[in-house]
């Protein structure tokens, strides 16, 4: 090879190498280049699923790729969480989960993941009040009458929940502890089937999120006995709190956070989190969530670090609560 040809070859190689750098950078900046899976630990139609689908539709417009909802149910959300923890950390798998991320360590002796170690934190999403509701033909007209009814009927009363580890399960445990009545619990595979059973009059009571119960309450299909927040809520302004009706200190609020497999690229986490926050500011999304009683999380919880700190705080909070209610757990 002549010196001229060698110089020409070297120049060409250098040009190709330099040209490859912007191409590689462009490839990295192309996220997302395909659909993104948002794993939901509970059944379709349930409260977490509703939040995920409302957000997902708006986020699709922001990110330019479909947000595919994948329902992986069972074991109080631990199956979905374990699945996400094991997923390839490429920025195309995320998990939306509620308080169950904080309660799982106390509820389950063996977990296939560690909530505080095996995930990247993205953002908190919304806070959702809970409601105590009953079948339409339950004799008690208000919570005072319900308390008397519970004491008279005892374990003849059927209390539904959406499965071990679901927030409705936790709320039910706390209700039984607070009232001192050991009702018969009836587990279902998700909120939707539990609600269907309540509407059909097959069970007596259910404690679940406003995102699921509000439409049925407003339709008159079920009876509302109170909300679980310290103050009344905008979605159901006439509904008294359980606290003001004598169940002092009774408070259960559901919060939802978004997580990714450990090692997920920071760019994907940041952009996905930003898309969530943009969706929460969308007037149509805000209106829909407000109708269901859900409120966007406070600003300090919308960062990855804010979610991490909140999860750690809630894990410490729920551990003694669950242990104290263990005699009612099933």
UniProtKB/TrEMBL annotation:
Keywords: Signal
Domain of life where this protein originates: Bacteria
Cross-referenced SUPFAM superfamilies: Periplasmic binding protein-like II
Cleaved signal peptide residues: 1-29
Keyword Acetylation applies: no
Any Pfam family: TctC
Family: Belongs to the UPF0065 (bug) family.
The protein, known as: ABC transporter substrate-binding protein
């Amino acid at each position: 090879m002549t010196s001229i040809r060698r110089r020409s070859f070297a120049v060409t190689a250098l040009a190709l190498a330099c040209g490859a750098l912007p191409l590689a950078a462009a490839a990295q900046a192309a996220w997302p280049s395909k659909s993104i899976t948002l794993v939901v630990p509970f059944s379709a139609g349930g409260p977490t699923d509703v939040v995920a689908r409302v957000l997902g539709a708006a986020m699709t417009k922001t990110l330019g790729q479909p947000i595919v909802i994948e329902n992986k149910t069972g074991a109080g959300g631990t199956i979905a969480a374990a699945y996400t923890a094991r997923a390839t950390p490429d920025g195309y798998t995320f998990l939306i989960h509620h308080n169950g991320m904080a309660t799982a360590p106390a509820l389950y002796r063996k977990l296939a993941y560690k909530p505080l170690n095996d995930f990247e934190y993205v953002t908190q999403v919304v806070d959702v009040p809970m409601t105590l509701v009953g079948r339409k033909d339950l004799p008690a007209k208000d919570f005072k009458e319900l308390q008397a009814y519970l004491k008279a009927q005892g374990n003849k009363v059927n209390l539904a929940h959406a499965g071990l580890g679901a927030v409705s399960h936790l709320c039910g445990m706390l209700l039984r502890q607070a009232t001192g009545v050991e009702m018969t619990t009836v587990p279902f595979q998700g909120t939707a089937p539990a609600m269907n059973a309540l509407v059909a009059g097959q069970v007596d009571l259910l404690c679940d999120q406003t995102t699921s119960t509000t439409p049925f309450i407003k339709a008159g299909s079920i009876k509302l006995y109170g909300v679980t927040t310290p103050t009344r809520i905008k979605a159901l302004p006439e509904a008294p709190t359980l606290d003001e009706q004598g169940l002092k200190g009774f408070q259960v609020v559901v919060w939802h956070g978004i997580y990714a497999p450990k090692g997920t690229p920071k760019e994907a986490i940041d952009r996905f989190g930003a898309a969530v926050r943009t969706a929460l500011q969308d007037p149509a999304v805000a209106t829909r969530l407000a109708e269901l009683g859900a409120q966007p999380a406070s600003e300090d919880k919308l960062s990855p670090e804010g979610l991490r700190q909140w999860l750690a705080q809630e894990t410490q909070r729920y551990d003694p609560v669950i242990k104290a209610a263990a005699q009612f757990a099933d």
